User: What shape does this take?
Amino acid sequence: MATPRGEFSSRFGFLMAASGSAVGLGNIWGFPTNAASNGGAAFLFVYLLLAFALAYPALMAELIIGRNARANGITALRSIASGRKSRIAASLVGFSGIVTVSLILSFYAIVSGWMIAHFLDAVARMLEMQKVADWLTTDESTRNSIFVVLFMTMTVFIITAGVRNGIEKWASRLMPSLIAILILLIIYVITLPGAADGLRAYLVPDFSRITDPALLVDAMGQAFFSLSLGVGTMLIYGSYISKDENLPVTGSLVALLDIGIAVIAGLLILPAMYAALASGVEIFDLDGNLIAGPGLIVSVLPALFSTMGGIGLFVAFAFFLLMTIASLTSSISMLEVPVAYGVEHHGFKRKWAALGIGIVITIISLIIVFNFDPLFDMVVTFTTEVSQPLLGFAFCIFVAWIWRRNDILQEIKQGCPDVENGLFWKIWPFYVKFICPVAILTVYFQ
Ligand code: PHE
Assistant: This one.
């Protein structure tokens, strides 16, 4: 079973892969709409605070556990456990992470499928294939199933090629394109009539909301989902980082990229929504809240694009390409979690593990597609609001309470020999030991 393990070839490769995992649908539509409906810059402020104070330490915990063990989540957690009970707990947490991330992928694939369908819709309209375009934008089970299968096929294809030739190669191509498209779109959208109102809604803080518990819960959930925490994705990517790499610095770059792109995405989505309002598109729901979630991406924004005439086709093309790229660099990190386990623990060939697990997840996705109303929201809520924070909590407990402090230090010292004298080592252990677990539980029980 001694398959050689993959390793990222450079810091750039790791940064693209890890920020690719982090930057996804959560950043580009979750964050901006959460911000707009929770007091604009007040949410931004709380989010930044929570992201740096809670999510970054939790991210570091996963990266360190992963790189130390150079193994999949279950083996990695078991390797730091000290007795029989903690080994059982390790298997349980690792296994729950695998199940949770597979379920996240099963709903993520559905939404990503919509993105591809809307992207192809722009292409079809450029080619004046109106019938095809209409089919592509009609929300029904056959279309959704076809695009789930297509998206999962792309994900499996990349994972089959391994860490360097699959994950790293594709993330290094796709992430720079994502940033370029995002910036071009912002430049265009910000010039539209009404866009300034969107900027105002986003950047002028309504501090009366800051004590609202719902805002805290939203901001923390957003930060954990956005940094792909609790389910072993960052652990597995950490396990492919070279021992020469400075972990605290690399981890903070990932957090900065993720948070930065979420904040920048706000400069696109909110001005776009208010530009849509200015051209007569309804952007508020019956309760007077901004339309968020699927409705925003698949109805409000397309309605805006269609008011722009010819150029709207190109804007739609670029926007849905952006969303597809963001989804794909996240979905590969999700599939890698169970695949690495299958390869390392059961000795499966990577190709067969990726294909087999990919098929199982696709089947779960299809079950959700055909039972959308009862299942979709349930799976989203269970995985992102229940399972992810609890698992994030468990990771902190493992690192701070079960793992020996000196062993952690020795691990970080590889690639960062002076860590003991720096700020990181003064603050981080205390944070993961006390602040993170208490904060996660407090917010959780809200
Ligand atoms: N971070 C991704 C996003 O923002 C989602 C994700 C969650 C990816 C969990 C991997 C694991 O969309």
About this structure: The mean pLDDT is 92. The domain at 11-281+290-445 is CATH 1.10.4160 (Hydantoin permease). The first helix runs from residue 11 to 22.
